[in-house]
Queue: 4 jobs
Job 1
Amino acid sequence: MKRLLLAMCLLFVAVASHADERIFYQPLNADANLSPAQWQRVWQDAAAQGAHTLIVQWTAYGDSDFGGPNGWLAHSLKLAQAQGLKLVLGLHMDPAYYQRIDELDTAGLATYWQARLGQSLAQQQTIRKDWKLPVSGWYLPLELDDLHFQAQDRRQTLQRQLKDFAGKLDAPLHLSVFNVGKLAPQVNGQWLGEVANAGIQVWWQDGAGTGRLPPLVRAAFANALPCSIGIVREAFRQVSTAGQPFRAEPMTPQTESTGCHPTAVFSLRYRPWGKVILDNQHNDKVGDVQNH
């Protein structure tokens, strides 16, 4: 009997350690087609699977604010909050972000970032004033990587900008990063640790879904991360190729131990309980927006 109880406890710990405690959701305009009852079921199921925090990638994408304070996204998030989910709300995303950072020199990049941070601060103030949602944190959807921030002076300028931006917010700032192998793992880990030391929750994407780096290289980057850096387990497998619009299929996220790191899962639409979102998207013939 004792052995059975021990086995059950170990199984519970293993399952709990891989629960979707924090889950990303990337809103698309097509998601407006879901009914309140469907959203209610999604959030109920997410909570039943162990989710306690929902990280919404953005609340404004280009010119779209998904209906604003009286729109479908705000209403859906209220349903999520009613299920006990804490909300980390994304700010403004420029659809041309990745194209723009490809084109800009160091000075231009700093100026561009300052403009984008100003736009996100305005969005944060709008949400606080009009959306009437309890917010546990703010997510900046401008992802970092070790290609565009390979140069040390760029990283230092960015850190100053992020620290200043975070100081203007009334809840912790979250942001995510990914690697393409342009920095050594130890240098990357030190950089992200310095960003985190400014009071920012940094999320490192494990890269299992995009498959850009070999597993041993991904592991080297993960092993060099300070404990404060969160690890995002990608629950998708990319099926599009270079030059095509991003498309992916659901995949069970990696289950290796993440040790001392907080964890999150990307993303809701690829999880079994988010299938209704993905099915609706495909029925609407809308491609994945996705990250990077």
Note: The first helix runs from residue 2 to 17.
Job 2
Amino acid sequence: MNSSTASSQAAPQSAFDAIGHPAPGVGVFALLTQFGFIDTTGDDAATFLHTQLTSDVQHLDASTARLAGFCTAKGRLLASFLMWRTGDAVRLMLAADIQAAVQKRLSMFVLRAKAKLTDATPGLIAVGFSGDVRKPLSRLFDALPDGVHVKVDGPRGSLIRVPDSAGRPRFLWIGPKVEVEAHLAELDAELTRASAEVWDWLDIHAGEPRITHATSEQFVPQMVNFDVLGGVNFKKGCYPGQEIVARSQYRGTIKRRTSLAHVDAENGIAPGIELFHSDDPGQPCGLVINVAPAAGGGVDALVEIKLAALEHGSVHAGAADGPAVRFLPLPYALPTEV
């Protein structure tokens, strides 16, 4: 039996619902194996990434993390990141299933730049914290970040405040494996260990999409609300796909957005599954981006969908006669498209 299983079994039954979601007031942590890391080092590290990603990297300071995307020449997202500076590197956190491919593709554009990309995943562990967690985190870090995407560093790594979700404050600790593993017993004694899927569910309810292998090259950044979430800087210089991304923004052509949704069914609902509208069942109207088991059964998801499909009729997952998709409010407002 692994430590995660043992911890889950040892936790008080009242700490979780029937499918493993923590009660709202419970402080939880989860080991986040769904993420990988790319470190970019060298004199031109920030300058190089600035020419490739949708966000401003050159002015990224040591106390800030930032969302960013990496697009094809056609403006479609190959990957989404949370990025920050650590030591002499700019670190990118992304879905583990695309880490190798994205690192390889970014490396193709280095050319004469003094920049080197390395896979930092083997030496790091990401830990997500949610709920009443300030006391144990204060033992790991001298100070806690006080705003969304504010970062503090210490001997044990980086601690980043990420958007609240489902009424719970959240933090990310990314640290060296040896440091994280040395403190797992302390965390188990003070907090309740949750599954990585619980963190995915919290990300979904925060309205932050994550590009994975199943959805790579499917969306321009605005389709996943990255313009609203701060993942695109429209004043920076060129990057792959920049002209298309800017044109979509300024010509009022954003007709598809990401919405929060629930589906009562559990089987067959996965990233990359198409959505169909009752008025036009012959062609898809959207795509599932991220999925996680819902607290009351079924699944919650972030889905990219035509805005017109939300106005009337019904939307179904997988096929025109598939399970119905019920839409929920996002925790932030979307701009009114002209």
Note: The chain has a mean pLDDT of 92.
Job 3
Amino acid sequence: MILLYATPLSGNAHKVRMALALLGLPWTEQPTDAAARGSDAFAAINPMRQIPVYAEGALCLRDSQAILAYLAARHRPGEWDGEGAEERGAIALWLSHAANEIANGPAALRLARRFGAAIAEDQAQAVTARFLPVIEAHLAQHRWLVGDRMTIADLAASPYLALAGEADIDLADWPAIGEWTRRIAALPGFPAMPGWPGS
């Protein structure tokens, strides 16, 4: 049985939800709010006290990018995690962007606007302004981030960009990003998420 420690509005948790749903894998979700993450019991599962956490039998994985890499290697090797060195390198690049520029830019702005978190506002705005033109230009030329199909690069990078409206970012200014997030939401089996247009 797969157990996913998550919260309904976490974009990082939704990355894993998307992968599980698109793979057709059943899972049980364990709601894990801030109070639960502060407990010693949760720290024993994930010493970083963050979600998501993926548990299956003796396996326990933290970090959404790591979980996506595991699911791809186990269930869609090559198709989801890259065919050959070039695709694997390109996928790793977008996973890095998801964990860095997206997390420290649009995701941080959403945290502040949606949940009232204290962030380094100027830094988050600067990172966002630097990154959005990069991914917009790429998606203006490509339907997917890597290759001719969806990969874990798309799953990793999309949630906090799809939820950009909650960060006061107007995706009308970034039409290629908007089309891409709606394309992902249109995939058969896509799990709906509040705030994700088209889901």
Note: The two ends are 26 Å apart (CA to CA).
Job 4
Amino acid sequence: MIIRLLAGTAAGLALLSGTAHAEPVKGAPELTHNELYKAAKLPKVACKPVKGTSGASTKKYITKLVGCLNSAWKPAIKEFKPVEVKFKEASDKRSCSTGMDLSGSLSEICATSISVRLADDWIKAKDDLKVFTSIVMTWSGVVTGQTGIGEAWWGLENGASESVMHEHNRRYYLQIDCFAGVSAKSLGRVVKDWKPVIKVPDSWKNRFHGKTANRLYWIEKGYKAGKPGACNTWTAASSKVA
């Protein structure tokens, strides 16, 4: 088994050679038949936080957004635990998940909370595209964490095959995209073009998100359905997670 060095929303990978062929995941019911997929459509949550161009207004925006996400997902996740947001000092550039120093704004899961470092790229922005996208994508990690999906993904066997490992990672990150679409629908976010959304860079420049066409497919699928069951990437054909 290839060891996955999971760090927040990024994965460091030790690559080994192998001949196994990638295919829909089998023998991992926590992924393919997770209880989450039976959840009803997420409720409509009135959530219209306003992001100004000051640090205080941006913090208020993020705090309200996370509160809305708590309300949206609570009915769908068994034994749901509300998540808090904690703001780092501007001088603290160290990522809790990788230990690396990163520039710019950052949201990541640290322990059981969402940790946010604010910088001018979010604070001074006239629109909320970057901050909304980052928080909602990070929130998808809350979903995988509280439903056992993240742990099950971590433990997947891959036959020491690089190609299988890469496909497993794409299935995971495309599911993150799909859950983000579900969140956006529940919060009443109107999105007519998802291309600017998936172009928002993450701190890791993660190469496991998949092809642009497939990222658009999964995030739009989640948005249109508005429920987690649309996001089962683990049983999808390999072509849909390339």
Note: Residues 1-21 have pLDDT under 50 and may be disordered.
